[in-house]
Structures are given as structure tokens and as C-alpha cells.
Amino acid sequence: MADILPALPEDAHELSKLVNSAYRGDTGRQGWTTEADLIDGSRTDAELLKAIIETPGSLILKYVDEGKIIGCVELRKEGDKLYLGMLTVNPTIQGKGIGKALLKASEDEARKQNCKAIFMNVLTVRKELIDWYIRHGYYDTGKRKPFAFTDPRFGFPKQPLEFMIMEKQIA
Questions:
Q1: The pTM is what?
Q2: What does the alpha-carbon distance between residue 120 and residue 80 come to, in Å, rounded to a whole number?
């Protein structure tokens, strides 16, 4: 039976392997969420994930099935909204409802924290991902922000990139 639980610092290494397998490199190409053709290098590392887990107001939810982490999502309270990032599902089993379950758990967490909305940054060139979020009630706020990551640990864009800010109101 699968569970969605808060990640612990000791999960950071397994989470790092999962996130990098889904977003970057050849394994990510097995799923539809890969950024491998857009950005080289790693998406994250265990040190950064551990720091997120240990930061007050931040949370990583992990989707665990048969003792293995197969999905996760980063959540961070910012004022009266909840930031959603790094929604990840093992690329070999995408399309089985795990992402939807993590999205629902994120929305439940937003309600629990009395947030009025969830927002996220999505690369504007990721049309299939944007469409998926739209089907789940998120909308384009019209706001854009540059892809401005400069830490060489996390790769370099292969083309100019920008983020679309998407949001969903939470009742």
C-alpha cells in the first residue's frame, strides 16, 4: 500500500536520485517530465534536499510504495500562498496517478496551512506540463521570471529559458 508522508533528512540521498532520474539525463527521457534537452547537469543534490527538509516552513512530501520512494513534491509557505516545486514521479512509472495524488496532497497541505492559493514556476517551453497543470485547475498568472540559476552544480540551460508563474486558488 502506498503512503504520502513528510520526507525526513535521511531520505535526501534517495530523493536526489529520484529527482535527477526524472528531470535530467537519459533515464528522464523514459518519462514525459524530463528537462534533459533543455538543461544539462543535475537538477538537485542530497545536500540541498536535506536543507529544504530542515527549513522551517518547507516540506517535501514523499510517495512511498513497498518501502521505496517513487514520487515527491517540495512545498514552501510564502505568505498566504504555498509554493509547489519539484513535483517528481519515477520516470518508468509515470502516468499511473502518482503525480495527481501528490498534487492533491499538496492542495490538502495548503488548506491545512490556511493558504489561499498554490503557485509554481513552470518553464514556458514545457507545453505538455503546462497543459497538465491547466487540466488540474492551475492557470497562467501572466507573470514571467527569468531562469537565473547560476550554481554550476545544477547545470546550464541549452537555450534561453523563462518561467511562467501558475496558480490555483484553494477553497
A1: 0.89
A2: 14
